[in-house]
């Protein structure tokens, strides 16, 4: 829903009805992840994408039918064996797309969801996408971290189970389809729901207000991170030099990071890029970074000599070998990068490889599926935004 929230908000608040299409399941080389959305607006314009172009026309037409009938629909789109250019995915993937009519009548709880999105508060929307009783299709449950859920799925026990399960997915920023049996029995069959977790954007902290930092910060924004640049030198850490980032902080980086960790503002999706290659900044902030959750990416820039010197300084300051094993240094993949912009691409590439478990080789030199999975549901990296 994040993909289309501004247009959806405008239509819903105007009392109009829109057709919302959501990718709820993918197989093989599907072009968009679970949670991707497309909206057929009340004026018949379209916002968002569910397939990058492969089946958008067919989904648009289905949304028109759903709006006309008022009945939600779950449709599978896959490659056609007879004609790869028929309606389907020429990449060979499979998408399950759920299309539902959305209005104040069909989804009265959406107003509160929109307020959460605009305020940057985490929220999960649970939608029934398959059920033995068609009357249950499209029912919603809105789940927040620490308040009672809103809405109803038609089964009080299922509501209770989904509230618990959706909170777990929301805390990890995960969106996925789940199946239950009658009465909310886990691992049962018959009732499928899609849990869309909309968590705030993951954090990226760039330490060091240098030209490489400006390029790395731009890459971070492209990847959907909330980017903070931190440097103790106010002469360099200015909004004029970093106009596109979310925050520019003039503070000792180790002190700033310690306070943010203590306040719980970093999670296991976070990234820390230490680009100063200056021991008086590097060592203290890296020591603090080792307190971050295990899934965080921690990287530091520098030559081989700088890297070896940094390791010795960190050991002398109390870092363990387990701590040092978490450190990506020298940061970035071997792309032959020279300029700050090229180096930023190599850093972004290593962050992506670490996140998704890729090998980093050229795709032409590999076999098997392109969109690798680490196992489990897809992690949503999209930031909450109303734009």
From TrEMBL:
<dbReference type="InterPro" id="IPR052698">
    <property type="entry name" value="MoCofactor_Util/Proc"/>
</dbReference>
<dbReference type="Pfam" id="PF13478">
    <property type="entry name" value="XdhC_C"/>
</dbReference>
<protein>
    <submittedName>
        <fullName>XdhC family protein</fullName>
    </submittedName>
</protein>
<dbReference type="InterPro" id="IPR027051">
    <property type="entry name" value="XdhC_Rossmann_dom"/>
</dbReference>
<dbReference type="Pfam" id="PF02625">
    <property type="entry name" value="XdhC_CoxI"/>
</dbReference>
<feature type="domain" description="XdhC- CoxI">
    <location>
        <begin position="117"/>
        <end position="181"/>
    </location>
</feature>
<feature type="domain" description="XdhC- CoxI">
    <location>
        <begin position="12"/>
        <end position="78"/>
    </location>
</feature>
<dbReference type="InterPro" id="IPR003777">
    <property type="entry name" value="XdhC_CoxI"/>
</dbReference>
<feature type="domain" description="XdhC Rossmann">
    <location>
        <begin position="204"/>
        <end position="351"/>
    </location>
</feature>
């Amino acid at each position: 829903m994040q993909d289309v929230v501004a247009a959806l908000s405008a239509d819903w608040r105007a009392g109009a009805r829109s057709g919302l299409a959501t990718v709820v399941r993918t197989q093989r080389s599907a072009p968009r992840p679970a949670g991707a959305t497309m909206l057929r607006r009340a004026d018949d314009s379209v916002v968002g994408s569910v397939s990058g172009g492969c089946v958008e026309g067919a989904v648009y037409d289905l949304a028109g039918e759903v709006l006309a009938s008022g009945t939600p629909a779950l449709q599978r789109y896959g490659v056609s064996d007879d004609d790869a250019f028929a309606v389907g995915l020429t990449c060979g993937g499979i998408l399950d797309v759920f299309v539902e009519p959305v209005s104040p009548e069909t989804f009265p709880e959406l107003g509160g969801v929109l307020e959460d999105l605009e305020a940057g508060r985490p929220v999960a929307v649970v939608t029934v996408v398959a059920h033995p009783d068609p009357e249950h299709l499209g029912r919603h449950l809105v789940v927040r971290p620490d308040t009672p859920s809103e809405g109803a799925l038609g089964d009080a026990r299922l509501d209770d189970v989904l509230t618990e399960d959706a909170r777990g997915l929301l805390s990890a920023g995960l969106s996925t389809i789940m199946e239950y049996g009658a009465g909310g029995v886990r691992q049962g069959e018959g009732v499928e729901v899609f849990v869309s977790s909309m968590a705030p954007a993951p954090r990226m902290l760039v330490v060091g207000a240098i030209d490489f930092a400006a390029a790395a910060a731009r890459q971070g924004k492209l990847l959907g991170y909330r980017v903070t640049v931190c440097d103790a030198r106010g002469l360099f850490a200015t909004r004029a030099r970093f106009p596109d980032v979310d925050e520019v902080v003039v503070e000792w980086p180790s002190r700033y990071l310690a306070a943010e960790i203590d306040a719980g503002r970093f999670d296991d999706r976070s990234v820390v890029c230490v680009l100063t290659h200056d021991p008086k900044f590097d060592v203290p902030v890296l020591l603090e970074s080792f307190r971050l959750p295990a899934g965080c990416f921690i990287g530091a820039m520098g030559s081989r000599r700088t890297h070896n010197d940094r390791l010795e300084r960190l050991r002398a300051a109390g870092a363990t070998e387990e701590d040092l094993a978490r450190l990506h240094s020298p940061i970035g993949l071997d792309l032959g990068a020279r300029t700050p912009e090229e180096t930023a691409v190599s850093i972004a590439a290593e962050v992506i490889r670490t996140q998704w478990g890729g090998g980093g080789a050229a795709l032409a030199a590999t076999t098997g599926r392109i969109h690798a999975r680490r196992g489990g549901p897809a992690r949503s990296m999209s930031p909450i935004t109303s734009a």
